[in-house]
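quick one
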Amino acid sequence: MFVKICGLSTAADVAAAVAAGADAVGFVLTESPRRVDPGLARDLVAAVPENVLTVAVFREEPAEYVRAAVQAAGVRAVQLHGNHPAAAFAELSDLGLPLIRATSAAKAAGADCGDLGEDLLLLDAPVPGAGEPWDWTELGAKPPAGKWLLAGGLNPANVGAAIAAASPWGVDVSSGVEVRRGVKDPALITAFLRAAKSA
Ligand SMILES: O=C(O)c1ccccc1N[C@@H]1O[C@H](COP(=O)(O)O)[C@@H](O)[C@H]1O
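structure w/ LGQLAAA5:
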């Protein structure tokens, strides 16, 4: 199970996620209480080992903005939330980085990974980063084909059941490993990794 810990903003967050065995760490470069600027993201990325994917998270900013921020931050993958057309993924393909299409599961019913040129599909709650769970069992009958991440309201207590219900390739979490919005808890990060990896 591939596990991404998102919304990191301090060196301690990064150290906790890496020590706990995260496969990817996310830095929010869009409007959010967890937002970091590309310069801080670059400093945090420098402390991440090569085998852990570093991901910059955006909403519907223009491709030029995304390209400049990704290059300034030095991340190795791009996550776009919202309702992007296939052209948005084509426009960023020259970055040569994995592109993650993050969308609400309700809007992407029947979607498969790669439909719009993405490398990885992420199915989320309607409001990204809000920590709101949704009915993952909806996906049980027909989960997307290909590599896809489950997100939205996951935490150490529910991630095992969510994985059993939806059979994702990976999971992504932000709010569920925080003591309060924007403040990560190393113990929750460790508990989330343990629960997800043993599911
Ligand atoms: O975390 C944020 O603040 C955020 C802001 C804007 C877009 C995406 C964001 N995070 C992503 O939201 C989901 C789930 O978050 P949560 O666990 O429900 O809080 C995840 O994909 C994050 O990468």
